[in-house]
Amino acid sequence: MPRQTRPVARRQLARRRHSPEVDDGLPGLFRDHPQPMWIYDLRTLRFMAVNEAARREYGYSESEFLRMTIRDIRPPAEQERLSANLSVAAPRAFENAGVWTHRRKDGSLLDVQVTSQGLRYRGRACRFVLVHNVSGYLSVQRALHQSEQLYRSLIDALPQQVFWKGLDQRYQGGNKEFARVAGLASTGDLVGKTDADFPWHYSAARIAEEDAYIMRTGQARLAYEDRLLEPDGSQRDYVINKLPLHDADGQIVGLLGTIQDITERKQAAQSLQLQSSAVEASVNAIIITRVGVKDDVVEYVNPAFTQMTGFAADEVMGRDCRFLQAGDTEQPALADLRRALHEERAITVVLRNYRKDGSLFWNELRVAPVRDAQGAVTHWVGILNDITATRRYQAELEHQASHDALTSLPNRALFNDRLEHAIAHASRYGHKVWVVFIDLDNFKLVNDTLGHGVGDSLLQTVAQRLSRRLRSSDTVARLGGDEFMLLLLDDGEQHPTGDTIAALLNAVAAPVRLSDREFSLTCSIGVAIFPGDGSAPQELLKHADMAMYQAKDAGRNQIKFFSAEMNEQVKERTLIEHSLRAAVVRSQFVLHYQPSVCLTSGTVKGVEALVRWNHPELGMVPPARFIPVAEDTGLIVDIGSWVLREACAQGRRWIDSGVGRFSVAVNVSARQFRRPSFAAEVREALRETGLPADLLDLEITESVVMADVQQAVEVMAELKEIGVRMSIDDFGTGYSSLSYLRLFPLDYLKIDQSFIAEMGTPSGDAMVRSIVMLGHSLDFGLIAEGVETAAQRDHLRDLGCDQMQGYLFSRPQPADALEALLAASAGR
Ligand SMILES: Nc1nc2c(ncn2[C@@H]2O[C@@H]3COP(=O)(O)O[C@H]4[C@@H](O)[C@H](n5cnc6c(=O)[nH]c(N)nc65)O[C@@H]4COP(=O)(O)O[C@H]3[C@H]2O)c(=O)[nH]1
User: Fold this and answer.
1) Residue 4: its pLDDT value, please?
2) Which of 319, 600, 651, 773 is the most core-located residue (most Cβ within 10 A)?
3) Does the beta carbon of 195 lie inside 6 Å of ligand 1?
4) C-alpha of residue 714 to centroid of ligand 1, in Å
5) Topology annotation, domain 586-827
6) CB of 595 closer than 6 A to ligand 1?
7) What was the pLDDT predicted at 8?
8) Confidence at residue 734, expressed as pLDDT on a 0 to 100 scale
9) Taking the model in full, what pTM does it have?
10) Which homologous superfamily does the CATH classification assign to the domain defined by 282-392?
11) Alpha carbon of 806 to ligand 1 centroid (Å)
């Protein structure tokens, strides 16, 4: 019904209240009224009249209506209420009967507002009913209610705080979260409160000012951040939206606000920011890959990665990490890595990786998975550590621990290790192992006379020569000093032979050119073979060592294979070693004397004292067998002192007994010569024995004086002052420097017997000639040693040599055995 028609209908009805008797002919107003109307009999409840609007609304024709009662347009649920209403309603009164549910002919229901008035119609007590269809209005009401509930729940369900306040700054409502933060039990308690009533009351004035501005200007403030102090003193961060509220006329009536606590989010963002800055600034190279369908692709690399690998971030983005392997995919660690990736677990591996320039680096890579909330791996984080330098250093350390610094050959420890393995392997398969001991001959001389620089170069040359001649399965080691050790496998495929060892000997002996000088070096080689010569490593080493000493004793520059007899000789050396000390105390030494004769006159000029050891078991032991042992043990100092005094005493006895004045030559060992008290000792021996100083001749070997020229010059000056004579023994075997030789106050050079033995050959003769010429040019007398033949004697005389010593004239003999010869010579 149009709005304006309702008051009209009511006014007409009101008028009828005062004239309740209605004619049969119902007015047009009833018939044409747009709202459904009817009259029913109060007794029978039958419809007496219905208008057109009622027929349209309910779907019945007039005649159908007139056959029905008002119960027929009510659903069963309303019947009881109807009965109750009929029983109490005053028959004539006007009544606003409220809202009822009616039923149309088609069964559909409609809500109607019923207004009725009692009247008499056609002489019967009836009731006039006007209905107003309110179905639409009610459903709107219901929907409104529902939507209000919905909004309420929605607002309450929001994690944000929501509130609204009026122009007076008082809160008119808010959601549960807001009430909770405000410290209230329910949202209803918010109404009428101001900010001054809440925990943030200290900010109330500021908030009021802000809110007043928004409500005054109508300008919303959206998404701004604010930091508020909490009652416990902590600070929390919020994102706030505030917008003005308008009424239907567009007037501002208040303010709606939402507040979101972003403290955690902000902290998370901050810590994320911090973490990513840390990753960015990290000195460790970091790479992050995203798990892809086929490959894991690079999503991030930090600057340290670029620095380490040379790859810029944009060059690697979206690529698989494999580019770091550059095709070097046969690495055992890669299999471990793949397995860990497959099993989605962290792992640390060391890989060979390659920089952009192709250079290799050792990468200690730590890879760990990153999982999402559901636990699925979405990314991998890799931390790269370039351990190339560390590895190199480690390798160097390992190499240093097992190798000789000078030659880079394996050292004794590594050699022993390999020997042990080789023996274990050989004993299992019935193979042989050759242990070869190589010692350079007279190397000490090289070192002492030419200096350690030359010595080192020679050792390096020997190391290279030996290494070159070996197979890869063999080992050559340097045990220190001038000793080399070889391990040759004899395993059925390769057979070392005597020729193999001879080739080594020759390789060492080949001339070496060093700073424009040519050197010839020889070596002595001893060989022991597993299992025949010993089954334990130490035993084999000992036997190879023994064999090598045999080679030395046999004149050097040769090879000796270990034999059981060698053990006997070694036993003898051990015996010598042990009984030498007692020999000094027990006076088991005697001196033999060998005369040296003037080559022109044939008269004896002097004698050389040569020590002999009268061993109770071994008999007369020649010096070659015990002097080296005495040198090694230091006993040579005591022996030498005894020899010096005894020789001086003998020289004096010959004078005193009238045999004659003969100079007595005494061999001085290196150890004796280097003692600071040596000159004093000589002086004392002369004083004690009374031998005139000029009758004592001290023989010092070439190597001893050249080893420390400065010291030699000083000691010799002291000795010269005493008045003794001095000779260089074994001249020609060492490496004398002529410029140094002239510094020494020498009397004689003694030509080594090896040169005399070579005489008769052009080179032998040339050598002796040049030594004689050299000696004379320096004003030294020359004495030839080991002259055994008349030819040698004659030739030496022809060359201008001064004296000779040797079996030709006399073997070394005890003093008394020599007396007659000396006396005869003195008497000539
Ligand atoms: N084949 C051959 N040999 C000859 C001939 N004439 C002499 N000899 C030997 O040649 C050696 C000469 O002594 P040396 O060169 O000083 O060499 C000496 C010397 O270096 C050392 N020596 C001997 N006595 C002493 C000593 O009292 N003190 C020290 N420090 N060394 C000594 O022992 C070395 C060997 O002494 P010896 O066995 O007595 O050997 C002596 C001597 O017997 C010859 O015609 N033919």
Assistant:
1) 41
2) 651
3) no
4) 27
5) TIM Barrel (3.20.20)
6) no
7) 46
8) 67
9) 0.47
10) PAS domain (3.30.450.20)
11) 10
Give how far Cα 582 sits from Cα of 151, 348, 542, 620, 803, Å: 120, 68, 27, 16, 37
Instruction: Match 């060059």 to its residue by tokens.
Output: 315
Select the CATH number that applies to the domain covering 158-266 from these four: 1.20.58.220, 3.30.450.20, 3.40.50.1220, 3.40.190.10: 3.30.450.20
Report the pLDDT value the prediction gives residue 17, as an integer from 0 to 100.
Answer: 45
Tell me the CATH number for domain 5-139.
3.30.450.20
CATH 3.30.450.20 domain extents, the chain: 5-139, 158-266, 282-392
The residue nearest atom 19 of ligand 1, judged by CA position, is 667
Query: Which residue spans of the chain are classified as CATH 3.30.70.270?
Result: 403-562
Distance (Å) from CA 610 to ligand 1 centroid: 6
Q: Whose CA is nearest to atom 31 of ligand 1?
A: 667
Instruction: Report the b/e string of 283-308 with b at 16+ CB within 10 A.
Output: eebbbbbebeeeebebbbbbbbbbeb
pLDDT-flagged residues of the chain (< 70): 1-26, 89-93, 231, 734-737, 827-828
User: Which superfamily, per CATH, for 403-562?
Assistant: Reverse transcriptase/Diguanylate cyclase domain (3.30.70.270)
Residue 96: the pLDDT is 81
Nearest CA to ligand 1 atom 6: 806
Residue nearest to atom 27 of ligand 1 (CA): 611
Residue 777, both tokens: 């040019």
Report pLDDT for 727. Answer: 96
Query: Please, what sign has the CA dihedral across residues 702, 703, 708, 711?
Result: negative
Look at the alpha carbons of 565, 566, 569, 573 in this order and tell me if their dihedral is positive or negative.
Answer: negative
Q: How high is the pLDDT of residue 698?
A: 97
Measured in degrees and rounded to the nearest 5, phi and psi for residue 477 equal -125, 155
